[in-house]
Amino acid sequence: MLATSLPRRYLPSLASLRALEALDRLGTATAAAEELSLTQSAVSRQLQVLEEQLGTALILREKRRMRMTEAGARYAGEVRAALDLITRASMQLHVQPGAGGLSLAILPSFGMRWLVPRLAQFAALHPDVTVNLSTRLTPVAFQSEPFDAAIQYGSGHWPSCQSLLLREETLIPVCAPSLLEQTDITQPADLAALPLLHIQTRPEAWNTWLAAHGAPPPKTSGARFDQFSTITQAAIHGLGVALLPDFIAEQDLAAGRLVTACGGPTRALGAYYLVWPDSNAASPALRLFRDWIATQSEGEDGLPR
């Protein structure tokens, strides 16, 4: 109802919006025209029409080159999110016209090591529900992103959302066997003599682990990584000691690629949760997935919070 009441100038054509998004993403009108199967002059016309319609300069034209204005770049980012939402909705409608679909955002390492190996069971139980997975490293903004639910790490409390505890996180210090051969490690405090690798999403992990073992915080900071997959490879190749969740380290420990550096495991401050917005709580596909994943949960209870 709201969309139909807006002035038409604020509802540009899809072709114009696609031209703007492509130019912003690809950087040149030539590349945008090739992707959209248009001529460069057609792309230029679409952009000119869009600027006239909105009454705002979106493009700076310099000889034969076009680049985005600051306002144009901001607008293109918002347009990209809207186009992505339309594409995902259309894809889901095409793939599952008569059944359920669930768009799930997952943390890369947790999804690969914990969720994906279990999904075959859900597919066998509910073949009419298609689970579409996308990776995210940061919490999902459900109001602007096209996801029904997400697996996130944190305290279990997100605004306007419900959550289900899936697994606590237990961290262990691991490194390549060769690294321990270079230094005499007899107690947790001795680890300060080795490079300590950090994960960006757990900035206090080493301080917490060392304090739990009666050791002072490290005097120097080490290399930082944005994903457990990359910090694991760094540890395997001898770049330092990493604090890894036990379920991520277990395969490499069993294979001998990693060894426990020193000390025992500690419980992390956060945990892994299935999270969904209050507005989507009644979704049939989500209910089926939520009820199933509760049977896989390693938490103390299976109740949403």
Structural summary, described in words:
The structure is a single chain. The chain is of the alpha/beta class. It has three domains: 2-93, Orthogonal Bundle (Arc Repressor Mutant, subunit A), CATH 1.10.10.10; 100-159 and 270-296, Periplasmic binding protein-like II (D-Maltodextrin-Binding Protein, domain 2); 168-269, D-Maltodextrin-Binding Protein, domain 2. Helices cover 42% and strands 22% of the residues. The chain has helices at residues 2-5, 14-26, 29-36, 40-54, 70-95, 108-125, 177-180, 205-212, 228-236, 246-255, 284-296, and strands spanning 59-62, 65-68, 100-106, 129-135, 149-154, 161-175, 196-199, 224-225, 241-245, 259-260, 266-277. Strands 3, 4, 5, 6, 7, 8, 9, 10 and 11 form a nine-stranded mixed β-sheet that branches. It has a two-stranded antiparallel sheet with strand order 1-2. Helix 2 (14-26) packs across helix 4 (40-54), helix 2 crosses helix 5 and helix 3 (29-36) crosses helix 4. It is globular. Mean pLDDT is 86; it is low at 95-99 and 300-305.
